[in-house]
Amino acid sequence: MFNAKKYAMLTLTLLVISLQFVPVVNTIFYREIYVLNGMYTGIFEIVASGIFVKNITVNSTSSGSGILRVNYEFEIWIHVLESNNYTYIYSYRLIGYKTWSRGFNRDLEELINATLDKYLGRTIISSGKWVDPALILTYDLNTKKLYFERFNLYYDITAVSLYEDTVCFEYKKYNELILNNKIHREIKTFYYDSLSKTPLYLYDYYAIIDLTDDLNHFYIKRVIFEDGIGHGLSKISRSKTKLLYYDDSTGKISFVSYFSMPDIELKYENNTLYINLKAEHPYLMVIVLENHDYINYSSIRLKPYMLRTKTLYLSDIRYTNSTLTFIFNEPIVKITDQQGNATYIHEVTTSEKNYSSSYILFYTIVFNILAIVVSYSVSKFIARVLKLIVQS
């Protein structure tokens, strides 16, 4: 008996599969505009000593100290499709890994090797409105299981940056607190493409240091950096910025797109700004203002982000010819063009990239142990001083 519902579902499934496997997609809904290929290198490292060793290893009888490091590589292909928005079909696979450990029992290294062997050579295909591959090697301390997770926890904004001439968003976080005589330290840095959210660089570090016993310390570090992906995106990434001048401050309106920028015409009257746009490709709009400036009214939806000294407003990705209206809290004095990406946003320098990639490969336990010893020595010195003060 013919089942129309099952037939429709089968047709839809075959359409999705065809979009994922056909190299050049050219349908009534989407058209492929670009394909890029690159590599991701990942570093996963655990160092533990004293009481923390038992929390790390599968065999709870382990003691002493240990270090484990995993280096691994993924290859990725990204297909950029365009309709009323950008859509991405991306496939990636683990092509190699190396593990090295000392001090931990063999169970932990065997678990990692067995898990990564299951991923090795297996192609994973995904699609969506942004590129978010599962590349971050994660070890669950409670379940003692190893897996790869996506970057969705890091998609926040603390700054706008320039990476390989590609406009990207930057997320940085640093937390440190002392709880029960232990220092808990967390450091995160993440760069990702502003349109596709393609990851460009991740540094995630979490450590616990026991102030009462320098033998008790632990940290876990995860690093992901790209090779060829940022360069590939820079070939199609385009941006244009307008400067807004007020009596005592300056704001910026930036437009980001692939291949070509929309035709932009700006007019202003007192504190009202009118923008006429004619676009050939979907685009993103970013407005950056000083903290004491703000937008009273917007004809489109904007999401605000509080940066270190500024406020950033981010639009949805748009693909319509329209006239937009914005009302600011103070009158606009003049508007000028800003030429060049690097002149209006922070550019990730070569030295930063070197530290983020090649240098980190040679990052050893020595620095971490020195930091632990110094922290412990300082805490003991402060304790002695306080004791002398109390006794006097």
Task: Give the overall average pLDDT.
Answer: 81
Strand runs, count: 22
With strands numbered from the N-terminus, the spatial order across the biggest sheet is 4-3-2-1-11-10-9-8-7-22
Beta fraction: over 45%
Distance between the terminal alpha carbons, to the nearest Å? 96 Å
The percent range for helix content is: 10-25%
Largest sheet: 10 strands, mixed
Order of helices and strands: HEHEEHEEEEEEEEHEEEEEEEEEEEHHH
The low-confidence parts are 4-28, 355-376
Write a structural description.
By secondary structure, the chain is α+β, with helices and mostly antiparallel strands. The protein has 2 domains: 30-233 and 362-381, no CATH class; 238-347, no CATH class. It has helices spanning 4-21, 53-56, 106-119, 229-234, 350-356, 358-361, 365-391, and strands at 31-49, 65-82, 86-102, 123-128, 136-140, 145-149, 159-163, 166-179, 182-193, 199-210, 217-227, 237-245, 250-258, 263-269, 272-278, 283-290, 295-298, 302-306, 310-315, 322-328, 334-338, 346-347. The strands form 4 sheets. Strands 4-3-2-1-11-10-9-8-7-22 form a 10-stranded mixed β-sheet. It is flat and about 70 Å long. Residues 4-28 and 355-376 have low confidence and may be disordered.
